[in-house]
Design goal:
Layout lengths: L2 E4 L9 E4 L1 E4 L3 H12 L4 E4 L14 E3 L7 H14 L6 H21 L15 E3 H15 L2 E3 L5 H5 L5 E3 L13 E3 L12
Helix pairs in contact: 1-4
Amino acid sequence: GSMAVSNAAQGSANSGYEADVLVIGGGPAGTWAAIRAARAGASVILADKGYCGSSGATAAAGTAVWYVDPDPHKREAAMASRYDMGGRLADSGWMRRVLEQTWDGINTLAEWGYPFPLDQEGVSRRNSLQGPEYMRLMRKQVKQAGARILDIIRCWSCCAMPKAPWRARPASTGNGAAPGRCAPARSSSPPAAARS
């Protein structure tokens, strides 16, 4: 079944959205999840605290990635190196999964047009991502996949609980709530699960 999502933070307190999947957060994990769910046929809403594609840590920074050729010898050498660097506190199954997903994801980004730099021989250097370009591309792909993006959602708990007796309000309303916190619409308090 689908869930109802309140859009009180975006304007109308009496309307809402219906979706099969609600993704909270528009960073790399959220955008990849929204794309995959939408492409699998689900109706998807991605809610972000800012503007999906330009808010959060990744959008403002560069991200190194563990992009290693799938040759078994190269992968084993990369895993052994990371295992030693990490004080031998790693799980080889998880490292293999990260290597596989990184290889697939980075190659998908290249297919979508991410501007990877070229080395002196003209070979694409796929060992890092520039945050602004990466997240702008991810926003575009989320929209192309058919997911709906709700930007500047101030209160995650309130959005996921449409029958709750409170609404998200910015601090400028004079209600004493900090930005991004649930502000009671009446004298009742949100349940413990909704408090941050």
